[in-house]
Prior knowledge:
heterodimer, A: alpha/beta, 6-stranded mixed sheet, B: 9-stranded mixed sheet
Amino acid sequence: MFEIKNITMIYDMEKSEKVYALGGFDLSLPDKGLVGIIGPSGSGKSTLMYCLSTLKKPTDGEIIYNGNSITNLSDSDRERLRRNEFGFVFQRHFLVPYMSALDNVIVAATEKGKKVEDRAKELLSGFGLGEREISKRPAKLSGGQRQRTAIARAMINNPKVLFADEPTAALDHENAFAVMEILKEYSKNNLVLVITHDRSILKDADSVIEMWDGNISRVRGGEEV
Amino acid sequence: MGQKLSAMKYIRNNKRRIAVLVVSLGLCFVLIYLTNFLLMATEETFRVCTIDNAKNVQYAFLAGSSLGIDVDNLDGEEINQQYLQKNLELCEALKEHEDVEEVYYTQVLYNVIDAAIGSWSVEMPLVEKSQLKTISDHIDVEICEGRMPENPGEIVLDKAAMSNGGYELNDYFDQESCDKTYKIVGVLDSDNYLGYGLISEECTVASMLVILSDGSVYDLSKLLEEEGIYVRDTYDNIVDVKQGEMLLKQEVTDVIGTSTDIIYIVIIILLFLALFIVYTMYLRDRHNEWCLYCSIGYSRKEIYRSIMRELLFSFGLAIVIGLALIGVSVVAVDFMMLSPKGIKCRYFYPDTFLEILCTYAFLLGVLQLPVRFALHRIMTIDAIDDDLV
């Protein structure tokens, strides 16, 4: 699904001491499966995810998605791609505080009407949120419920790629594994990229990319991790 | 793409915030309109005093020099004699004009009419009993309460003059130099601050030429010029439609216009500052939300459209609420403050509505600056703070 060629991301371009967030490497990602990206802070894993998802533009190199280069797309094409093809689970949920859980899911939908509402309800109830919870605002939900709402929002359009940045960082173990189960299930038909510090949640990953200092240090199967 | 960012979701879920914005805008609408309404009530009242009443009855007080009296070489009594003589001659001469029905050189009372702001003196002729029918027929207003004057010092006022002065039937007219002299014995069925009566034997007030015309005398000075009288002396006082129009413009319309402009500008500046500060804070609160939308693929254009839908809804609702409040408040102000004082007013000023709508359009335009700035600040989620839950 993704072909990454010599991807480079340099911060502080204008300064004499440049910071290489991504050091120029090649990578290939499959059409489906759960792929973990692991590494310490500053290793470049989040930058890689943001480049793949078109949120950031790499300084050099090329990203090919489904046979098309997405490196130099216009802003509107990038937005269209994010809206139609990708789903996002951010580290801190980023739910809209004044909306109910249900509305937070619906807001990301590309379609409208009863069908979308039913799908949002189905996703939320599938993730364990009852009728009462889905009408609550994020502040009234537990951390796990918020993260599951964020995952439902990411899945509302059935995206081909789901990017999850530290999706379990703010969760206890029980909730963390529940979230990973949802992502694992979704990865059966789609590509799910999970960025994490926590190796234990990647035990079911199909492959794990280990990053160090802006480069890939190793690519392993999930069981090896 | 089917789904759009809904403005109503924010509005429905933030009713209190939207209500504060809408009510504030609506109240400013009311404030601007009410200010104009009260100032215009003053103009409406003075228009009757200066122009409407001068259409059928004109007054002229002419100084001795204008009448051709050699005031420097005559003693006081001679001057008075000549002054009376000249005025009586002028009466007879003016009667010959086809536009003039009757002319009297007689005493005139001044009735001070208070408007919402300021006051204006209106002339009320006092005549002999034999002349009363002529003047009442000319003014042509029925008595609705009390009776016509029968004895010296008795006068009649119309309903508006009664209310404005706070008079009851059989009260004495408030005349400083002739206290308890002129008794109000009847009320005329009119709202034009009219009044007349019989000369008192106990007290004398200044005399003037009272010209009862057919309504076509616009410029009394021209009529006087035909009789060789040129109105030049600073003591000359002419009350006719031309003078009324000029005085209304100079002393009321222009002054009110300036006051209205100043009040408008102050209100608009205050409203603009308050709105700008509140709206900038509001935009800052929404920053992370819009960054999220941008990250999940909404374009800035779509975010802008949703902001504008929210703004237009708020402004539209403010105008509707403003209109409703204006409707209630002008009626309330009229019934509680203006009508009891006999002050004239008009409820509907389309120009003011247009000005207010233009002001709102201007504010909406100015608010594009913070909106544009907020849109410019939108980033994707990798760069935003963690303000959202």
